[in-house]
Amino acid sequence: MRRKFALLLLLSMTLSASACSRQPSASPAERSIVCVDIHTGQVFAVDATESVPTVNPESGEKSLMPGLYCERCQTWHVAPSVEQLHRQHGVAYCAKTGGVLKLDGPRPDPAP
User: Fold this and answer.
1) Relative to the CA of 78, which of 17, 25, 40, 107 has its CA 20 to 30 Å away?
2) Neighbouring-strand partners of residue 44
3) In 10 A of CB 99, how many CB atoms?
4) pLDDT tens by residue, the chain, 112 residues
5) What is the DSSP letter of 41?
6) How far apart are CA 42 and CA 56, in angstroms?
């Protein structure tokens, strides 16, 4: 009985602490992700809450997919599907250089 009480107390304290330490809401730049046009290769920063594929603000087509960056060729590439990532143990590689693709890279200006 004592062990259950201690576990409940610990759980409630953890939940209380996490509720009190909420971060202020993120700025639009922090909520954006980099997307790449599947037809042109153009790179855009779009709101992360958008559904995929996202509308290209220049063409009006739903052709923007999440991007990953290759530091070797300094290019954003369309991210592979979730199924492909699972087959590759969560790692994507650049087709040009063989380098590991990352989420971080130079960010374009946010789309209007």
Assistant:
1) 25
2) 35
3) 14
4) 444 443 333 444 444 544 444 555 555 556 889 999 999 999 999 998 888 899 999 999 999 999 999 999 999 999 998 888 888 887 899 999 999 999 999 998 765 5
5) -
6) 9
| Backbone angles phi and psi of 76, in degrees to 5 | -85, 135
Amino acid at residue number 77: H
Query: C-alpha distances in angstroms, 87 versus 60, 69, 84, 92, 101?
Result: 33, 20, 5, 10, 15
Chain position carrying tokens 């063409």: 59
In this structure, what token pair is assigned to residue 13? 């304290």
Candidates 28, 27, 70, 61; CA nearest to 45 is 28
Query: Sign (positive/negative) of CA torsion 106, 30, 45, 101?
Result: positive
